[in-house]
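Pasting as-is:
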Amino acid sequence: MISSSQYGSHSWELLVTVDHQHEEVQKEFLLRVTGDLHIGGVMLKLVEQIKISQDWSDYALWWEQKKCWLLKTHWTLDKCGVQADAKLFFTTQHKMLRLRLPNMKTVRLKVSFSSMVFKAVSDICKILNIRRSEELSLLKQSEDSLKKKKKKDKNSKEPVTEDILNLCNSPVSSGLSGSPGLYSKTMTPVYDPISGTPASSTITWFSDSPLTEQNCSILAFSHPICSPDTLAEMYQPRTLADKAKVNAGWLDSSRSLMEQGILEDDQLLLRFKYYTFFDLNPKYDAVRINQIYEQARWAILLEEIDCTEEEMLIFAALQAYHISKLSLSSEAQDFTCESEVDEVEAALSNLEVTLEGGNASNILEDITDIPKLADNLRLVRPRKLSLKAIKPYWFVFKDTSVSYFKNKESAQGEPIEKLNLKGCEVVPDVNVAAKKFGIKLLIPVADGMNEVYLRCDNENQYARWMAACVLASKGKTMADSSYHPEVHKILSFLKMKNWTMSPQAISDPESIDMKPECFVSLRYTKKYKSKQLAARILEAHQNVSQMPLVEAKLRFIQAWQSLPEFGLSYYIVRFKGSKKDDVLGVSYNRLIRIDIATGDPITTWRFSNMKQWNVNWEIRQVAIEFDQNVSIAFTCLSADCKIIHEYIGGYIFLSTRSKDQNETLDEDLFHKLTGGQE
């Protein structure tokens, strides 16, 4: 019986279900509460009523109908809006989650289901020894890939048992905060110069991590594909629309896992979402470099990104006949020679992959007089009926523009045409074997893109002009300190492509123990016989055979970054005023409007020219303003507009990083730039 005085105090009954493992104890409890009782008081009342002696510190209240956590324990029930019809769930904040890593290995670990995904990913990366967690996020598998997996499981005669690495005994995953200074730059690591894997003493840097040396090796080493059938069984997005479906699965970084319908022991993909790999350092980043390499490798094998046959053979040579073999051999060997360490450090200091990361340009290195290029090149303009007009001209490259004249003598007068390359698309058109060194320029004009090809005579000329075009497209001149490294990078990539067949390579006995079909996409396994593929991969292998393992992985990553489609995430959108759907490509420095039928770029907008962007949450429309009174607006059809909004804000956030600042992230700034004001 309840006294009349209790009724008079506006009290009411609140139903709370407790998630505990004691079968003999009831799970549903009715608490008599008032609206001015705070959340902490509700939990205290509940624990007193449960009468089970255990640690309740990780428990919190989950409001089922509203899909939200009640984490502000000082707030009252009235302030939270909780009334008698609310169904509350008293459950742990940290739960088990299965994560498929870029190397296709699955780890099982405890993750916070109540923290924002951005914070949860940061904690996951501490467990896995991956620095720069802001570059990664969690992705739901697309329905198409799940359908293919179910079909594969149904057709297989033997039950599929997945090898899962269990990392559930971690202090971080138990809800304790990681120690500060985890990735201090003053560390002097002991590492294997060939594999880049941290040696035993290195493991002690990561005192919060449950990774043993064996587990660390699983994450830091590349493991070859077991059979060519593995590729055929995996989902491959064929069209831009298929790729857009995959990108629809990114979780919202500003909300928790539980708020987004993720349940305990669900499987998610941990992937590099933002393609700006900042401050890659082989001393500390063995796992990170390997996982970036693996994401690149699978993107190429599954044809998520297009590349030429020549490029595919380089990728195959690097991963098949080099990285795989070194990974297998280095597990059984111990390389501790000091001179080798020095050589590797010297080689890798030139290979640090910093893609638009921080301020690369140093004012002292830049020169006041902007250099220019002047040379004889051939101009190619596509014509109707597939005919091309190829004519030699005298070209002058200055600032961010290319001008061309009839000949060198007329260069003092007015040019025939001046092409402003700021904001243009630069695509390599190269076939080293055929001595073809072309640069394809897609220059924005009022009604779309103006297509122009420049033909160079040799590798050195191509590297200088290509580097100048790439910088000009970003609004930089050749005075920028990144010009010469860019020339060097292009030349080293061309050198890898430049191979000739030697009789020793054909008779190489090592070629027998590798299945070449495992290292190229299905398109090429259908085109060539196994022996032909093996011979061609061995040709390409000659130029990379002397590389240490970490350098080979970094070269692979650089070659991936050189592909025209690198870093593009696709979404199907409808632009304001348009009657048909288009594809929007989001990259680290620009947005590209792409024709959904042909795949051709229509217009490019650079982030550097962006003044502001906002989202109308009622009609789910993204509106962006650029310089020179250019404005666009679109609705997203293949995903929630919040995903594109977060992509844009995320890339702008990452562009603020600098090597000078310490490695703590401004989480508030990230959420200001990416969080929705819904």
